[in-house]
Amino acid sequence: MKKQRLEKDKIRKKSLSLGILIGLIISIIYFIIKRTIIPSAIIIIATPILFYVYFLFRNSLKKSARIRKMEEVFPDFLQLMSSNLRAGIIIDRAMLLSVKEEFHPLDKEIQLTGREIATGKEIEEALLDMSKRIKSDKIHKTILLILSGIRAGGNIATLLEETSVNMRERGFIEKRAASNVLMYVIFIFVAVAFGGPFLFGLSTLLVGTLTGLLSGMPAGGATNLPFTMSDITISADFIKYFALVFIVVTDILASMILGLVNRGEEKEGIRYLIPLLAISLGVFFLIRLGLGGFMQGLFGG
Predict the structure, then answer these.
(1) How far apart are CA 247 and CA 159, in angstroms?
(2) Which among 59, 57, 62 is positioned nearest to 10, based on CA atoms?
(3) Is 129 within 8 Å of 113 (Cβ atoms)?
(4) pTM
(5) What is the three-class DSSP state of 64?
């Protein structure tokens, strides 16, 4: 626990110091170019926060990946331990012999649990402690099933073997379900990364062009039209910035939905956020840049 706290404190200090340094550099460059104090101050405050959130999510994703690796190899560990028990080896020795490099990072937890049982710790307590250290809901429930079978007087080797088979079948079902929702993931990604930014870029360009066109018309020159001309109070820049904010918020929500659909956890979608932002913002500005000259030539701007 102390080691984990030290690692978290180290990550916090690293992210904050790096964010402050980069924020200071960006704010100085921005101030030299724009000569405005308030945006520069906002950059100094916002950059460390963004870096801290990024490192926090990255650390969380690393932990999730570690847990997922242990869940994948846990059925193989149960199968190997069952084989050792059937060979007549006592449970603590069978667990230690089941330690393989291929089971990393589960191998360290198995080794520690085997040593605890060998030094006199109860099997139930040692297995429960292992599940608490791993922090996997799937492994915790599996260990509870094994312990309930042991209390009922079942054969440990048979219990481990049947549990291993059940866990593999469950894994196959989860992979099949993930493949079935792949089309939904692709559709959401394409719609958010390409479709939405394309429409936003086109609409903001049209609004800017028509705003400039209509603002130059005389007030009484459109009496025969089914609508009336009035002063336009919303600027084209406001529409553009609103579209940018909407794109960013949509990308964040879409990444969380992708993580939930594809992996079962919202935080797993953070890995999609950077590609979504890069593609969607790139499409938005490319549309405005590519069609800007065409629209000006078409409407005589």
Answers:
(1) 52
(2) 59
(3) yes
(4) 0.64
(5) helix
Read off the tokens for 111. Answer: 């080794």
What is the end-to-end Cα distance of the chain in Å, rounded? 66
Confidence band, pLDDT 50/70/90 cuts, at residue 78: confident
Higher pLDDT, residue 293 or 274: 274
Separation between Cα atoms, residue 147 and residue 124, nearest integer Å: 6
Compute the C-alpha angle 171/176/182, nearest 5°.
Answer: 125
- Give, as one character, the DSSP assignment of residue 193: I
| Count, residues in the chain | 301
Residue 121 parent element (H or E)? none
Name every residue whose Cβ is closer than 8 Å to that of residue 12 and which is 6 or more positions away in sequence.
Answer: 52, 55
pLDDT digits (tens, 9 = 90+) for 131-153: 888 888 888 888 888 888 778 77
98-115: b or e for each residue (b if 16 or more CB lie within 10 Å)?
bbeeebeebbebbeebbe
Residue 78 and residue 183: Cα distance in Å, rounded? Answer: 35
Q: Where are the domains of the chain?
A: 70-166, 181-214+234-301
Q: Which residues, 6 or more positions from 209, have their beta carbon under 8 angstroms from its beta carbon?
A: 295, 296, 299, 301
**Quick count: other Cβ atoms within 10 Å of Cβ 146?**
20
